[in-house]
Design a protein that fits this description.
Radius of gyration: 21 Å
Number of strands: 17
Structural class: alpha/beta
Bound molecules: alpha-L-sorbopyranose
Helix content: 25-40%
Strand order of the largest sheet: 16-15-14-13-7-12-11-8-17
Largest sheet: 9 strands, mixed
Distance between the termini: 29 Å
Length: 402
Amino acid sequence: PNPHLEGVLAAVAYMSTELADKPVKVAVAGIGFIGQVHIESLRRLPGVEVVALCHSSQGSAEAKAKAWHVPRAYADFGAMLAEVKPDCVHIATPNSLHYAMVKAALQAGVHVVCEKPLALTVAEAQELLALAKEKKLVHAVHFNVRYYPLVREMKRLREKGDLGRIHSVLGTYLQDWLFYATDYNWRVEAAQTGDSKVVADIGSHLIDLIEYVSGLEVVEVMADFSTVHPVRKKPKKAVETYSGKLLAESDYDDVAVQVEDQANILLRFGNGARGSVSVSQVAAGRKNDVNVEFSGSKSSVAWDSTRPDELWVGLRDTANRVLLRDPSLVDIETRGIISYPGGHNEGFGDTSKQLYREIYAAVRQGAQPANPSYPTFAHGLRELLLCDKIVESNRKQAWVKV
Ligand code: SOE
């Protein structure tokens, strides 16, 4: 049995057979950088309509709704749920708002797709997972990096035994949009972001990816954080993710920063394998770069998100090779998340579309399947637990068991 393959095939069937059905109504909360990615990707699914959005004030919500041609705009999330009665809601607001919004949506009987991190604490995430299960609603977390086809292919190569026994994992996730002290965003404020910034924001993608591809569980962590800008310049007006770096040197307040700009983490896995990951939002020139390498007893694989259609396969006794993303060259499961023939590039914007295809196959069925192929609140909870242990390890400067 291959639960992923079942999910993928269900998504493909949904794309080809459900077009005539009543459209699925979706609402999106939080229309910053990533909320806009959600809207664009949803609009690439046949039979799915974005019928309402929610943003921080009525004025900003209406401006976003006008710009995005979304019929209804709200500042009050509860009112949106009650009046619009969406089938599914996507939550892309700052981290500190996720818990209350997810809870309200589940209590209203609405399926939920939430951004990572699912909540601010492990206890909150446990409660949300339990509630989603009790209500039998579809629950998913936007770990979209899993949906690059060659990431799926690495997982399939591992599952088919082509890598052998994995003994080492390396990973980096580097960005530079918070490089200067004048680069500002709600993510640098602990009250909005939680106890961790870079680990929760992008480390969560990387570690989710590592466990997903390797099939291994992290059992122990040793972390070392640093805050490169302990004082940042906060613009007097609000700025969205990524847009702060376009501001002029003008009206700023100095604010003290508690959360980390970069982190180095050693990992130990259940099978004895070792790993090392580095994450940073102050790495000049690295806009949004994920790199992973898995070394096994038969071969190695390495993938770089800036060249997403190429997978490096390392071999000891024959020439290394580069696998190109083409439906004819990959495993049948990987084929399910490729839309275009090789040479017709697919990238960041396609990952959410492929993820939503699998999620909306479940939304159409009206309940979470027994073995969802997509990342669920259980994975959101797992990343919060790991993040907690990583924060604890940095604080103690010691190995911490998960
Ligand atoms: C900001 O670092 C951010 O938008 C992340 O929150 C997303 O998860 C990532 O996809 C791009 O960068």
